[in-house]
Amino acid sequence: MGVFFGLHKYNLDGKNRLILPVYFRNLLKKEKAKYFMLALGFNKCLYLFLPSQWEKISQDNLSIFKSSDKEKERAFKRFFFGNAVKAEVDKLGRVLVNTVHKKYAGLKKKIIVVGVGNKAEIWDANQWEKYNRKVIIPNKEKFSKIYDI
Questions:
Q1: Nearest partner of 36 among 47, 45, 109, judged by Cα
Q2: Does residue 135 form part of some domain?
Q3: Which of 2, 33, 54, 103 could pair covalently with 27 via S-S, beta carbons 3.0-4.6 A apart?
Q4: How far apart (Å, rounded) are the C-alpha atoms in residues 80 and 74?
């Protein structure tokens, strides 16, 4: 199982296909798989998982999704798993982003793919810039104190 990292800038083509970083595709090859799992994420981005990572979060009867509020737990599972799809990688290293996912994340042409450890996130470039200015930049000093980096 690999780790996703880096910030990558791409364009969504006219057929809603997105090229993925070579490093990410190489992680997929190591798993001898031909698809990533694509799911709706938080903050209006999409999550991209390797099959092994998807399996890991899905195992143990979904124990990581347990909540004392059973209605919210069921709602989250329906949101997360109900909107997930296999995103097959074509010969040119692209995945198709379906209309539901594209609309949810507000994807236009310019796309940012961010590696965040156990998954990658797919953002509309403008949404990413807004998030970066609002959340990441103001907290950079705090990150270094909290995480000793």
A1: 47
A2: no
A3: 2
A4: 10
What's the rounded mean pLDDT across residues 77-106?
94
Please list, in sequence order, all residues whose beta carbon lies within 8 angstroms of the beta carbon of residue 122, skipping any fewer than 6 positions away.
18, 38, 45, 46, 47, 48, 97, 105, 107, 111, 112, 113
Dihedral of alpha carbons 135, 136, 142, 145, sign: positive
Asked whether residue 120 is assigned to any structural domain, the reply reads: yes
Neighbours of 121 (CB within 10 A): 21
pTM: 0.89
pLDDT tens, residue by residue, 57-75: 887 555 666 667 788 888 8
Q: What is the tally of structural domains in the chain? A: 1
Residue 60: CATH number of its domain: 3.40.1550.20
